């Protein structure tokens, strides 16, 4: 955590919706943040639409209080067991998960191993089209179940042992599996047997195993209120009610926090430069598992020489961009995964991630120069204009390249063009992982099977083999992935830009707001007396 509130002073790049659904906007439902003697807290969110944990894509903070994960990963890499009593394996491939006894869903029914197996199979089943099914891809039998026309209804790698124990067999050994059961992987959250009778009804009133339960049915564009669950078997929350207030404009939510009508908001890009002046100690930024790059169309010959790619990187003044655009909350990237991911070898990038315009120009000349203009394409309407104009200016001034930043009409157009390889030049590239492990970033960026198509656009059999070897290594400090980072560094496919932090501001009511993986831990917020 770069700044912590009072006790020591978010999918996404600023302006893009982040993990903690906070690209919010205004309506007339803003609650008062100061009822007498209460310990409620309110947070701005994007209206989620879908609340089912295996399907939601922007309701992470809601899911994080209505459900409890099996495990919880902290920024220092330590792993706590929550709903799980233990997660054990002798070979990193077959895992035994033992649940804590005495835990119940909000309808009073006990949380059992069968509930987990049924929930995971429902999410994985292709015809259900669960958006988060990919979080279960490593389980044996997933491919047969997840197909559009599945050949099985349940994954062969799941087996119930008894009421509190189930076994998970993976396709290949994976030491990171316990971390994959942590708070960001909402596809692993359990649903009670009643959910499968009517999923539409369940979406309107989700029943979880977490510290908070729904106060009323979900209604589109209205505040969602959750209240402390009296029979919660875990650690008692520090607040008794949380209001998730939908906004369509984060600037409006920001103003509401200033006025004391709202407690927490993810800081919009348009307010970041002034946030610390506006809020003082109530402005904070949490290191997050997000990293950005200057993507390059590596399918073009003019990028084939690694010295060209290295020269572009050395010509970018990350420090100045960070200070002027991001209030200094980001960390200029010096490795190939975010700093918050355990074992990230900070400094690995060395001179090629340091600003040295003279050396950059000399290296580019040594490589034979750069052919043609350089268009930098990025999603329009995402608050990224200043960033890419600054990078284009750096490349023009320092390398003499005719660089220009060009926005697309919207995110959909950009994503379609990048996925299809229909870009000539450079482009927006970033990934925000759901759990803070180097594995979570490298799998998505550097494997052809990853979820960020053409973000880096460089795939290597050596990297794939190295990742599989690192996954099987039983060490938990992330050091096993160092060899993979060395391979990427030697090839230097694209310039790394920033390891991200997610910025928030709070009202004066909030005395403390802990966070993990860049997102607030809402059930541990402390309200001023």
Class per helix and strand makeup: alpha+beta
Question: What is the residue-averaged pLDDT?
Answer: 92
Uncertain residue ranges: 1-36
Percent of sequence in beta strands? 15-25%
What does this structure look like?
53% of the residues are buried. This protein has helices at residues 60-66, 113-124, 142-146, 177-180, 199-204, 250-258, 272-279, 306-314, 318-326, 357-366, 385-399, 411-420, 438-446, 461-472, 482-491; strands at 40-45, 71-73, 79-81, 84-89, 94-99, 158-162, 165-169, 212-214, 224-228, 241-246, 264-266, 283-296, 331-332, 374-378, 403-407, 425-432, 496-506, 510-512, 515-516, 519-520, 526-527. It folds into two domains: 41-250 and 509-527, D-Maltodextrin-Binding Protein, domain 2, CATH 3.40.190.10; 287-502, Dipeptide-binding Protein, Domain 3 (Dipeptide-binding Protein, domain 3), CATH 3.10.105. Helix 8 packs antiparallel against helix 10, helix 13 runs antiparallel to helix 14 (461-472) and helix 14 (461-472) runs antiparallel to helix 15 (482-491). The protein is 26% helix and 20% strand. The model is unreliable at 1-36 (pLDDT under 50). Strands 11, 12, 13, 14, 15, 16 and 17 form a seven-stranded mixed sheet that branches. The protein has a four-stranded mixed sheet with strand order 1-10-9-8, covered by helices on one side. It has a four-stranded antiparallel sheet with strand order 4-5-7-6, covered by helices on one side. The chain has 529 residues and is of the alpha+beta class. The two termini are 25 Å apart.
